[in-house]
Design brief:
about 200 residues, mainly alpha, about 75% helix
């Protein structure tokens, strides 16, 4: 994949993803307070706008990739679609049987789950073909720096939105930020230790 295509992807993907996160955690909690039906519909559908930009960035990345990279993306998408649809089916059966109670909020998690499982499947497919798991993010910036940056952004969103967010949302943001920061620190320590042994 050319550097130009990869840079374009980064410029298109990250602002849209950060907008999605900000909308979901800062504006979307205002939804129950809306009384105007049109405003409520607009606010409820607002997160779809950055998602469309993320999808556009991903499609443009895949179309700009060579055949092997396209195959790796296809395998990742197949793994994600299979896993998420199977989990949805199992959840539907359990809800229909009255074992668990699911409401419409569960549908909000389908797309993020699909993206995460897609990234895992794509990384697995890339390793099968002798590459790294870093298929879409091989811009020379170490993974631990990217994880720490995302953790910092999520922590900033939690800090800025702490008065608007419920306890569950604030806890989720803090947990995500802490988990990503810990993951980044572990990767940094592992890289540092490996570098120390080779010298």
């Amino acid at each position: 994949m050319s550097r130009q295509i990869h840079r374009r992807y980064q410029r298109e993907f990250w602002p849209a993803m950060l907008a999605y996160i900000a909308i979901m955690f800062l504006l979307w909690p205002l939804l129950p307070k809306m009384h105007n039906e049109l405003l409520k519909i607009a606010l409820a559908l607002l997160p779809v706008v950055p998602v469309l930009f993320v999808v556009r960035a991903m499609v443009r990345l895949v179309l700009g990739s060579d055949e092997l990279e396209q195959r790796i993306h296809l395998i990742g998408l197949a793994v994600a679609a299979t896993m998420v649809s199977t989990l949805s089916l199992a959840g539907g059966f359990l809800a229909a049987a009255g074992v668990i109670k699911l409401d419409g909020m569960i549908l909000i998690w389908v797309w993020p789950t699909l993206v995460v499982v897609y990234a895992i499947g794509r990384g697995w497919a890339s390793r099968r073909y002798g590459g790294g798991s870093d298929v879409m993010c091989n811009d020379g910036v170490a993974l631990y720096w990217r994880l720490l940056l995302v953790a910092l952004v999520i922590a900033a969103i939690a800090g800025l939105g702490r008065h608007q967010l419920g306890d569950y949302q604030l806890g989720m943001l803090c947990g995500m930020s802490g988990g990503l920061a810990a993951w980044g620190l572990v990767l940094a320590v592992v890289k540092w230790r490996r570098g120390g042994r080779t010298e």
